[in-house]
Specification:
The complex is a heterodimer of chains A (258) and B (532).
Chain A (H helix, E strand, L loop, with lengths): L19 E8 L5 H13 L2 E11 L5 E9 L20 H12 L3 E7 L7 H7 L16 E5 L6 H10 L4 E5 L7 H15 L7 E5 L5 H6 L4 E3 L5 H19 L8
Parallel strand pairs in A: 4-5, 4-6, 6-7, 7-8
Antiparallel strand pairs in A: 1-3, 2-3
Helix pairs in contact in A: 2-7
Chain B lengths: L6 H23 L1 E3 H10 L12 H11 L7 H12 L3 H9 L21 H25 L6 E6 L4 H14 L3 E4 L27 H18 L4 E5 L5 H10 L4 E3 L4 H6 L3 H17 L3 E3 L3 H6 L6 H17 L7 E2 L1 E3 L9 H15 L6 E3 L9 H17 L4 E3 L12 H17 L3 H4 L7 H23 L1 H6 L19 E3 L7 H9 L18
Classes of the chains: A alpha/beta (258), B alpha/beta (532).
């Protein structure tokens, strides 16, 4: 295969730099030749060439749906990218528990909730519940974690009160179903509340959900963000390692990390 | 029966479920709730909001509750006001809200006949609901009932007018049933929002005006497509019977109504939920509305393979409780879901076993089959395939209502073409495998038959245990979805009131009678009616 130019990376279909991409979308106009042409024009304006509207569907009423193949004329300089990622050494269930026992010597208290109007606990349940997800145990099963799952539609105020009451080391917030970016204001509100209570720096604050990235989480004032595909051990390892980092910051005489 | 299940074991499960339901009914018969009383007001014609935007049924019932009047039923007092003043229930409610009238100051009318003062309002409401039943029947006989599995899709834009557009588009593409997803937090509101919604989050509020707007939109597309397009909404939450009443008045065709969902997944108090589901399902029954139960929810938290018996146990309990509200089998849409881990070897066989088992055990129920959600990852192409497998399981096991999976599940509320793709997927699979179920038999003692037998065994054991413990105690141990709830925990307990000997609910009374419920199932009718 010819050498990829990392300063000018283009989409790959079946030949290097062919720029082929697939798109699908609807337009709120009636099905017909004009609709198809409208889709083609629109895709050209997106910076595409060789536009093929390969499939056009009448959605009834005045909607038309398109599947389009086209050649993207843009490229990206991969060498210049800096993507914040959660700094964590991957560990399994046993290693994480051993680490907490050896380096921290006490159980880590985690309070978790699906906050605001969100009623979808599937994400937080996968991380916290005993049963876990994809063959991994959830945090409830970790002997060196004490995990409290507050469930769905928890007001930020309740979450903060519960965290203070339980003397939590970490707070996990899940946002699954959101509309019109309501999750952003909801997540920001939690940070404001924690700051108002003067406990923001006492906790490791973690967000998770299908639309959460680490970058977004940092921007909103969280310590870490976990997106789709996250397993319980990823979150557990991060919290454990971050707790140890924090302890070291506050009590530097604890000794060297290994 | 295709799975050759042990009939005695099935009978045993039903016996247990009936005993469990009877235990619950003891509790149900002894109480009323704020939302049940608000429902009575709504059915008497009370609607609208006060100056602060609070629904009038809430204003009046809250006042009565504070004054300790609810034990006799709100109708008792409204009837006295109407008999003494000649006002309509609506006018009376408006005056009560402005504090120009005090409910408590009206004593019984001499001659003991205040109840007859509201009989006109009671009859008018019941007539309107029966007219809706007749109109639905007319539509179905003219346009036909549709071919099962019926295609069920959701709309959820947050704007009811936009919802109508999308619903009509879906109906034209082939959808039979439209559900308008509610704003996510509505189940926890202890009132029903008022008026048309144009900006909702995660869905569109269930309001009577929204019901009316969508019904009109679907009737018009029914005429256009020559198919009766059914409308669905959600009774679940703190206002089960009120939303049931709104659905009955506006000719909804199906309503989500589970006897335990609110308790488990919304942490609503169990005494409250059991009382509310009883009256709300009676209204559903009277209105010819098919209920959809929520067993699918168990499998989004618990594992579909390991917890299959909890789904079946819950179906038995939901069925027994639904019968006690007067619902016939043909209106009990028991739920289950295609949520097996796709990585599991032979997972499809287990899915088929469980879906076929529901069909064999509940032959007359319009079973509702829910699509994969738990293992939908945002990989839309894989998701589309999972939905195809789900559709295949649905058509080959004779499911009645197929809630179509969206390839963009776990990404966003469906886009207009997501729904179109889902309908195309289902239409293709349903047509291509239309008679597969009739043409195949399952190998005796093969993987599928053995799996079904094992789930039935586990279910029988579980129901035995629940009967011995009592459902409320057993729920405290987290037997469903691993979620534990206590009898006095959860939201809404402050709205539960013990009924007095003079408790009166004219709608419960009339509906029970017309639904042919035995006196023992009908707390209101045991007392002599005031009518001459």
């Amino acid at each position: 295969m010819p050498q990829v130019d990392l300063k000018n990376v283009k989409p790959y279909g079946d030949t290097l730099d062919d720029g082929r991409v697939q798109l699908s979308f609807s337009l709120p106009i009636r099905y017909g030749p004009e609709a198809k042409e409208a889709a083609r024009q629109l895709v050209i304006q997106m910076g595409m060439e060789n536009v093929d509207v390969v499939s056009t569907h009448d959605l009834g009423g005045h909607f038309t749906y398109f599947v389009v193949y086209a050649k993207c004329t843009h490229s990206v300089d991969v060498t210049s990218l800096r993507v914040p990622t959660v700094q964590v050494e991957q560990m399994d269930f046993f290693k994480i528990n051993d680490l907490i026992r050896d380096k921290l010597g006490r159980r880590i208290v985690v309070v978790a909730a699906c906050t605001g109007s969100d009623a979808h606990t599937v994400g937080i349940d996968a991380i916290i519940n005993m049963k876990g997800y994809a063959g991994e145990y959830g945090l409830e099963r970790y002997p060196w974690f004490r995990a409290l799952n507050l469930g769905a539609q928890v007001p930020n105020e309740t979450l903060v009160a519960k965290a203070i009451e339980a003397d939590a080391d970490a707070i996990l917030v899940s946002q699954v179903v959101t509309q019109k970016n309501v999750h952003i204001s909801n997540m920001t509100r939690l940070v404001d509340l924690l700051e108002a209570e003067g406990v923001r720096d006492d906790v490791v604050l973690v967000a998770g959900g299908p639309r959460i990235t680490h970058e977004l989480a940092l921007e909103l004032g969280y310590d870490a963000g976990f997106g789709p595909g996250t397993l319980p051990s990823h979150v557990a390892a991060y919290i454990a390692q971050e707790m140890i980092r924090k302890e070291h910051r506050t009590s530097p005489d604890l000794g060297e990390e290994r | 029966m295709k799975l050759d299940l042990d009939v005695k074991r099935i009978d045993r499960c039903r016996e247990c479920a009936n005993d469990i339901a009877d235990q619950i009914m003891e509790q149900v018969r002894s109480v009323t709730t704020t939302t049940c009383e608000r429902t009575v007001l709504r059915l008497l014609g009370v609607d609208g909001v006060d100056r602060a935007g609070v629904p009038l049924p809430n204003v009046v019932v809250d006042m009565a509750h504070r004054a300790g009047l609810l034990a006799n039923g709100i109708a008792t007092y409204v009837a006295r006001v109407v008999a003494s003043t000649g006002l309509s229930p609506q006018q009376a409610a408006e005056k009560i809200a402005c504090r120009q009238l005090d409910l408590a100051s009206f004593g019984p009318v001499p001659g003991d006949c205040d109840r007859s003062a509201v009989s006109g309002a009671v009859t008018a409401s019941l007539d309107r609901i029966r007219e809706n039943v007749a109109r639905r029947r007319e539509y179905l006989s003219k346009l036909g009932p549709g071919t099962e599995p019926l295609l069920y899709v959701i709309v959820a834009t947050g704007n009811i007018y936009e919802d109508v557009e999308q619903a009509q588009s879906a109906a034209k593409a082939g959808a039979d049933i439209i559900a308008v997803i509610r704003s996510t937090a509505q189940s926890l509101l202890d009132y029903v929002p008022y008026g048309a919604t144009t900006e909702g989050y995660g869905g569109t509020f269930a309001t009577q005006e929204n019901f009316r707007i969508m019904r009109r939109g679907l009737d018009s597309v029914s005429a256009e497509t020559g198919r009766y397009i059914r409308l669905v909404n959600y009774c679940s939450g703190l206002c089960m019977p009120e939303i049931a009443a709104m659905g009955a008045l506006e000719r909804l065709d199906m309503m989500l109504n589970d006897s335990m969902y609110g308790i488990l997944f919304r942490d609503i108090n169990m005494k409250r939920t059991f009382a509310d589901q009883y009256f709300s399902r009676m209204i559903n029954a009277y209105a010819g509305i098919i209920i959809n139960t929520g067993e699918d929810n168990y499998l989004t938290t618990a594992d579909a393979y390991e917890e299959a018996h909890t789904v079946l146990a819950s179906q038995f309990i939901n069925e027994a409780l639904a019968h006690r509200s007067g619902l016939p089998d043909s209106q009990i849409g028991l739920g289950h879901a295609f949520e097996m881990n796709p990585e599991m070897k032979d997972g499809f066989l287990y899915e088929v076993a469980q879906a076929q088992m529901a069909r064999d055990i509940f032959p007359n129920a319009p079973l509702k089959y829910m699509p994969p959600t738990k293992y939908m990852t945002g990989d839309i192409f894989r998701g589309y395939l999972l939905n195809g497998m789900f559709n295949l399981a649905g058509v080959m096991t004779g499911q009645s209502i197929q809630l179509l999976g969206m390839l963009t599940e776990a990404i966003h509320t469906p886009h207009v073409h997501d729904r179109y793709m889902a309908i195309k997927n289902a239409k293709y699979v349903f047509s291509n495998a239309r008679h597969l179920g009739e043409d195949i038999i399952f190998k005796p003692d093969g993987i599928i038959q053995q799996r079904a037998a094992q789930v039935l065994d586990d279910t029988a054991r579980m129901l035995d245990y629940v009967r011995d413990r009592g459902l409320m105690k057993a729920m405290g141990e987290g037997i469903f979805a691993g979620i534990a709830r206590t009898a006095d925990g959860g939201r809404g307990l402050d709205g539960v009131v013990a009924r007095s000997d003079n408790y009166w609910n004219p709608f419960e009374e009339a509906m029970s009678e017309q639904l042919g419920l035995a006196a023992s199932d009908n707390p209101s009718r045991r007392r002599a009616s005031c009518r001459k």
